[in-house]
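Membrane insertase YidC/Oxa/ALB C-terminal domain-containing protein
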Amino acid sequence: MLFQEALAANCYQRSRDYHVASGNAYPRTAIKPSTLFNGKYSTVKPITAAVLVRNLSTADGDKTSLLNTIPEPPAIPQGGPEIADIVAGAEPAFATLGLGGWTPVGIVQNCMEFLHIGLDLPWWGCIAIGTVVVRTLLFPLVIASQRNAAKMNNHMPQLQVLQMKMTEARQAGNAIDSARYGQEMVLFMKEKKLNPLKNMLVPLAQAPIFISFFMGLREMANTPVESMRDGGLFWFTDLTICDQFYALPVITSLTLFLTIELGTDSARMSAANMQTAKYILRALPLFIFPFTINFPGAILCYWACSNFFSLIQVGFLRIPKVRDFFKIDRIVTHRPETLPIKKKGFTEGIKESWTNMKISKELEERARIDEIRFQKAGKGPLVKTYKYDPTAPRTAGTPNAVNAKKR
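Structure:
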C-alpha cells in the first residue's frame, strides 16, 4: 500500500514540460503546460498541440497560420500508364471478360486459362495439351470398346445366321419365328458377353467433350482474348480468325478420313454389316469441309490435334503385343464367301435397307389394322358373314329343308 502511494505521488510530481525541437538537433526549448495554450500558441487546438510542438521551431516566428490553411490535394496526372503496361505480360482475367464459370464450357475455358497463365504456355500448346489429357482420360473406354468390337467380329458368322433368319421371318410376316430368332440372338450375345452398345461408348463420351471444347474456344476467339491473336504456330499465328491459306481445314478433313479408313477409336469398320455406316462416314470429311473453312484457328487446332491423337491411338492398338497386354482378342479375318450375308455394294446396300424398312412398315401397319378390327368386333354388333342365318328356326316346308332331304 505504501508503495502504491509513493508511485502515485511521483507521477503527479513529474515534470510535464514539452520540448520544442528547432531545426538543429540542439538546443531544445521547454514549454510549460500552463503556458502551452497562451500567447502565440493560443490558437492551437488541443488535438494539434502535440503536432505543433513537435514540428514548429521557436526560432522561425509565428507559423500558426499554417494550421488554418489546408493545401489543395495534388492533381491526378493525366495520360498515366495502364496497369497492363506497367506489369509486363499482364492479361485480364477470364472472369472480367465474361468467360469461365462452372458449366462444361466454362470449365474448359478455366483449364485453358490455367495452362496459359499458370504454366506460361502459348495458346496452341494449351489446346494441344488439353486435347491429349482429355483423350488419355478416355483411353479405358477405348480399351473396353476395342475388346467388344473384336469379339463381335470373331462371332460374326453365327450372328449373321440368326440375323438372316430373323429378317426372313419378318419379311414373311411370321412374327412368332421372328421373335424366336430374336430371342436366340439375345441369348447368344449374352453367352458370349457381346454388347453392341459398348461400341458406342467412345462416341457418346467424346460428343459432350467435343461440343464443350468447340463452344469454349469459339467464345474465346469471338470475345476476343487478345493474347490469342499471336498465340498460334507456323502460318496460323492468329487463332481468333480463320486460316487464310485453308491449310488447317484440309488437314482436319484428311486426318478424319484416315481415321475412318484405318479404324475408329471404337472399332474397325470392316465387317459386312458396317459397310453402310463406313460409306456414310467417308462422305463426312467432304461434307464438313465447307463449314470448317470459316472456323477460327483455335477450333481447327483442337480438331486437328484430336484427329492426330486418334491416328496414333489406332496404330498403337494394332500392335499384337499391345493387344495381348490389354486382353484384346486377335481379329479373325473372315472371307466374304464364307459369310451367310454376302458383301454388297453401296447402292445394293441402300436398296436392301430401303426394302427392309418398307416391309417392316407394312407389317406394323397390318398389325395395327388387325388390332383395330379386333377391338371393333369385341365392342360392336356381330358382323354378318353368311347368306342365311343357321341359328334361325326352320319349318319342314321350307325350300331349304326340301332340298336338304333330296340331297
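Confidence is low (pLDDT under 50) at residues 11-34, 39-56.
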